[in-house]
Amino acid sequence: MKNVTIILLFITQAFSVKSQSVPDSVTQLNSNEFRNYMAIRQLVDSFAYYADRTNAQRQAALFVENGTLEIYRSEPDTSKPVFVLKGRKQLEEVFNGLKKYDMTFHLNGQNSIKFGDDTTGTVQCLAHHIFFEDGKRTLQTEAIRYYDTYTRQNNLWLFVKRKLVIYWEDKRLSTP
Prior knowledge:
Blueprint: H1 2-14, H2 24-27, H3 31-52, H4 56-60, E1 63-72, E2 83-86, H5 88-95, E3 103-114, E4 119-133, E5 136-153, E6 156-173
């Protein structure tokens, strides 16, 4: 009975009305900002979805016509990009490279958005890639953080720029 009481006390505290389960930045948004927040979150999730479906054309269409993707191995403010893609055509060509994997799975995590003259956001993602190397099933996992700039065109939110930072990679044999 004592264990049940402790568990109930924990649950009550964890889900109390006073708890801050939603970041303060979201709770302070007005209804229009919240709708925009959700639309941008959908944009971010669509990027991962189309990557996993290897639909490079739809993935590239999430950028403005001259959108940019920069790839880094460390924080952008202390390093230079190792690769820069500009424009939907070039983005689509590179996104088609995901077809070399037998399977991909991108899981988006924390997301923050700052509205202003330039709407910006940060997104964390774990990318999983399964492929065969020397006849052995291999899993490569990457911890990624995106630093994004967004714009709204024709009532749609699009990426202007994504700075993709690969924090770490892990490659190992995988058993189904």
